[in-house]
Amino acid sequence: MTVLDLPPRSGVPRSSVRDPVMDERNRGRIGYGLVVCGLALLPWLVVLATGVLVDSARESLTWVGLDSLEAVGLVTTGLLVLRRDPRRTLGASATAALLLADAWFDTTTATSGTDLISALAMAVGVELPLAVLCVILTVRGLPAAPARARTQPGRRPCPHGAGAPPCG
Fold first, then answer.
1. Coil, strand or helix: which one is 86?
2. How many Å apart are CA 125 and CA 151, to the nearest integer?
3. Is residue 5 classed exposed, middle or buried when 0-12, 13-18 and 19+ CB atoms within 10 A define those classes?
4. For 125, which DSSP code?
5. pLDDT (tens digit, 0 to 9) for every residue of the chain, 168 residues total?
6. Residue 68 burial (CB < 10 Å; 0-12/13-18/19+)?
7. CB 96 within 8 A of CB 139
8. Is the pTM of this model over 0.90?
9. Cα–Cα distance measured from residue 90 to residue 104, given in angstroms and rounded to the nearest whole number
10. What DSSP character marks residue 123?
11. SS3 14
């Protein structure tokens, strides 16, 4: 089964399927935590959309767009974690990239003083830890690499598989 394949419908309820990546308690904490973090961005999006904290409408649109994508990524990843869906790795990796980009742009575009301090606090306290969590979800959710075929010294591996006649 690849990362994109859904588990086959076997008549077994999803709640009884064991997740090889995380136990039930951690799955619930991580899933609901990500959903809550994504929903917590909604009031912040309203503040950004009003343009109180930015200089222009274009800048406001830029930050609203980036933070909206983060909110969608966090909620989607959280829901996929709760559903034990292996596609959570896709959402987690995209969300990690968005969070890292947000932390970078926040800190590099902040002016000195309280702007910079609050940008660094958000990056260190919220965005980077969430990005690390998403990277961990991505790495732990990837399928294991298949074992490499063992070959004898001096012989090339057979492209036809182990049961085929010996290759040259």
1. coil
2. 50
3. exposed
4. I
5. 444 454 544 554 555 455 556 788 889 999 999 999 999 999 999 988 887 666 777 888 888 999 999 999 999 999 999 999 999 999 999 999 999 999 999 999 888 889 899 999 999 999 999 999 999 999 988 877 666 655 555 566 666 666 666 665
6. middle
7. no
8. no
9. 21
10. I
11. helix
Token pair, residue 89, equals 């790795």
Query: Which amino acid is residue 145, in one-letter code?
Result: A
The two three-digit tokens of residue 28, written as one number: 């619930």
* C-alpha distance from residue 66 to each of 3, 42, 47, 145 (Å): 26, 12, 14, 34
Locate 94 and state its tokens: 């995209």
**Encoding tokens for residue 14?**
């999803």
- Residue given tokens 């077994």 in the structure block: 12
Q: Is 6 left (phi over 0), alpha (psi -120 to 50) or beta?
A: beta
Please name the residues in contact with 146: beta carbons below 8 A apart, sequence gap of 6 or more.
none
Token digits of residue 70: 């983060």
- For CA atoms 18, 137, 95, 122, give the dihedral sign: positive
